[in-house]
C-alpha cells in the first residue's frame, strides 16, 4: 500500500537562494527569478532531514517520486498531485546497440510519456500550494503536455505557447489535456518572451524552465533515484540530453544533498551535457571556456526537446559539467537517428531522438577514448520513442492472392 501520497511527513525547506549571488529569499512565497534574473534554488535543513529519515526508512517506502518527500518543497500533503510518477527502470543495452557497461534510464515510462512530468508535477503542486490559478509556459512539446495534465487535474488554467513546427502529437496532447495551446512563428525563446510579457502585466504566472524554483526540485529526483537504484554508488559517467539543463542541474544538486546527508561519498559521475550540433550553445561555450552561453541562431535538429537556443541556467550547466570533469558534446542528426534505429533493432528499446543523442555521444566518446568501455555509464532516455515519427514500414499483404511464404 503506497502512502507516499497521503502520509503527512515533515518538510525541511529553510529558504531559497539566488544561484548566482547567494542572496536569500523567503520560502513559502511565490517567486520567479532572483533580483539579478537568475534561477532560485531551494535549500533544506539537511541535518534535520538526516535525523528524520534514514536510508532504511526510505527503502521501506514505495519507490515512486513522492517517497523523497523530505527532500521536496511541498509542505502540505493535500497539495500533492499525482498521475503515478514511478521510479523509472535502468535498462541495460547490449554491445551491438553500442553499449559497453551502459544502462539507459528510461524516463519514457512516466506520466505524459516524458521526464517533464517530474518537473511539472512539482511545479504544479507548488503553484497550487502558493495559490496560483493561471499559468503560462513556452514549450517544445513535452513540458507543455506535462503541465496541461497536472494543471487540469488540480483545476489550474493553462496557456501554452510552442514553436509552429512542434510535433503535431505534442500540440494535440497539450490541447486534449485541457490547456489552451498556441503555435507561434518562432523558437522557444520567442514563445518565452510572450509568456514573460503577459506575466509582467499580471495576466498569469510564468512557469518557464528555471524561471520558477520548483521544476528543478522535481527533476532532482532523477539523481536521488539513480543513487538509490545503484546501491548508493553513482556511475562513472552520465550522458544527459541538454536543452534548458534543468535535469543536469537538478541531479548535480541531488548528489550534493545526498553527500551532505552522508548517504553517498564524494565520488561524482562525469557529467556529459549532450546537444545536437544544429543547436549547441552549451558546447560552444564549454569549448571556448566561457561561463555563459550566447544564443544559438538558426537552431535546428530532429531532437526537438533539446532545441533550446538560450538557457537561463547556462552557467549552472557549465559549472556542473566542469566540476564533474565531464564535457559538453555535440552530435549530428544522422548519428542521432542511427543510434535510435540501432538500439531499437538490437535491443528492442525505442529511444526518443534526445535519448538517441546520448547514445550517439557515448559511442563517439568511446571512440575518442573519453570514456572507457569498462566504465559504468548511464544514458537518459527522456521520453517515449512512440511520440516521435518513425521510419516507414511499407509491407502490405493481399490475403486473397497466393502468398509467397518464403518471401515473408
Ligand atoms: C525537455 C527535454 C529535454 C531537455 O531537458 P532539460 O532538462 O530541459 O535540458 C531532453 N529530452 C526531451 C525528450 C525533453 O522533452
From TrEMBL:
Signal peptide range: none
Cofactor: pyridoxal 5'-phosphate
PROSITE patterns the record matches: DEHYDRATASE_SER_THR (PS00165)
Matching CDD domains: Thr-synth_1
A GO molecular-function descriptor: L-serine ammonia-lyase activity
Ranges for domain Tryptophan synthase beta chain-like PALP: 81-382
Keywords: Lyase, Pyridoxal phosphate
GO biological process, one term: L-serine catabolic process
Keyword presence, Lyase: yes
Key word Transcription present: no
PANTHER family for this protein: L-THREONINE DEHYDRATASE CATABOLIC TDCB (PTHR48078:SF6), THREONINE DEHYDRATASE, MITOCHONDRIAL-RELATED (PTHR48078)
Full protein name: Threonine synthase
Lineage: Bacteria, Pseudomonadati, Pseudomonadota, Alphaproteobacteria, Sphingomonadales
